[in-house]
């Protein structure tokens, strides 16, 4: 969260999580979108850091949050299996 304050992290994380749930066709609530975006940004920043890529500022945090949230949703689906919700 370098360069992004806590309130901005919550707002941007929520937006990133919301975009990821739309992209991945997942149905989560607002709170889970925020969690997915914030944790997703940390995960993506770590993974891209291993590759020597870094994201900075609000836009970078949004991109990292989106990518990380998509990764987390994919992992959750893999762990849950292919159950169909009705």
Word description of this protein:
With 86 residues, the protein is mainly alpha-helical. The protein contains 3 helices and no strands. The chain has helices at 6-23, 30-50, 57-80. The longest helix is centred in the last third of the chain and has 24 residues, at 57-80. The chain is globular and about 35 Å long. The model has no long low-confidence stretch (mean pLDDT 82).
| Proportion in β-strands | under 5%
Spell the H/E element sequence: HHH
Task: Briefly note the structural class of the backbone.
Answer: mainly alpha
Strand segment tally: 0
Question: Which residue ranges are poorly predicted, with pLDDT under 50 across at least 5 consecutive positions?
Answer: none
Question: How would you concisely characterize the structure shown here?
Answer:
This protein has 86 residues and is mainly α. The protein has three helices and no strands.
Name the features.
mainly alpha, 73% helix, single chain, 86 residues, globular
């Amino acid at each position: 969260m370098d360069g992004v304050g806590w309130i901005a992290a919550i707002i941007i994380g929520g937006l990133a999580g919301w975009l990821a749930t739309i992209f991945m066709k997942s149905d989560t609530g607002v709170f889970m979108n925020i969690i997915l975006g914030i944790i997703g940004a940390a995960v993506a920043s770590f993974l891209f850091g291993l590759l020597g890529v870094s994201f900075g500022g609000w836009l970078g945090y949004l991109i990292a949050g989106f990518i990380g949230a998509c990764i987390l949703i994919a992992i959750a689906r893999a762990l849950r299996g292919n159950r169909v919700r009705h």
